[in-house]
Amino acid sequence: MRRVANLIAAILFAVVSIATAYLAVADIPEGLGVDRARHDFGRRYQGDVVKTQFDLTNQSSEPIEIVRIRAQCDCTTGSLDRKTLVPGESVPLETIWRIGGKRGLVTADLWLEYQQGSGSERQLWQRRLVLSADVLPDILYSPSELRFTKDTKAQQRVAFRPGRMTEFELIEARCTHRAFQARLLEDEQVVDVDFDPSLWTAGQSKQPPELIVTTTSVAESLSRIPLRVQ
Predict the structure, then answer these.
(1) How confident is the model at residue 202 (pLDDT cuts 50, 70, 90)?
(2) Among residues 3, 16, 75, 228, which is most buried (max CB within 10 A)?
(3) What Cα–Cα distance (Å) separates residue 26 from each residue in 11, 41, 173?
(4) 110-131: per-residue pLDDT in tens?
């Protein structure tokens, strides 16, 4: 029995070692240098379009071909004027990030996939670049989510106040689950949410319920506030 247990432990150790080695090969760049792996834009606003440049350099003794630039979302793009670098050659990577309706501390990733070497010995590597910003929204609200107890009928309130926009309007408020009812008080710039536990069924919806408030913000016309039931 002990021999079987030792054999299983040895197999598991070998599998973990192989997986670790594979991830190291897949994720650690070998030869494509970059002047910095992260660029922080600092304080920005919803709707901003920001740009920066990364300088890429072939630090190896072999040619490097950048075969793909992969973005985390459509809001981020990267472009190169050439994709093949001889040893010692550099190229600027121009990036554009459309922040859109994001708020708070946010990031966007760019992945560079490249091949190094020649012939049958060419390997595929990748290099991750990160863009970050602290985004001030057009309209602030608190709390950022509402929490309810599943057996207790209750009412909670979300208050809205100016962010970048000094003047704004709340147009409509609704909830995505029938156990919640939203009531918009325009003059006070608040939304009250009533929870009826008799209408709540856990797992009834694949998507977590939300309070959706339509506003006059151009960048984030729909404020989506999670509704948690515990």
Answers:
(1) low
(2) 75
(3) 23, 29, 47
(4) 999 999 877 666 788 999 999 9
Which of 60, 56, 110 has the alpha carbon at shortest distance from 82?
Answer: 56
Q: Two tokens at 120?
A: 């049958």
Residue 128 CB partners (closer than 8 Å, separation 6+): 27, 37, 109, 110, 111, 112
Two structure tokens written together for 12: 């598991």
Question: Would you say the pTM of this structure is higher than 0.90?
Answer: no
- Annotation: CATH topology of 139-229: Immunoglobulin-like (2.60.40)
Q: What angle do CA 100, 112, 82 make, to 5 degrees?
A: 100
Q: How far apart are CA 43 and CA 60, in angstroms?
A: 37
Pick the CATH number of 31-136 from 2.40.50.140, 2.60.40.10, 1.10.10.10, 3.40.630.30: 2.60.40.10
Q: Of 214, 213, 211, 221, nearest to 146 (Cα)? A: 211
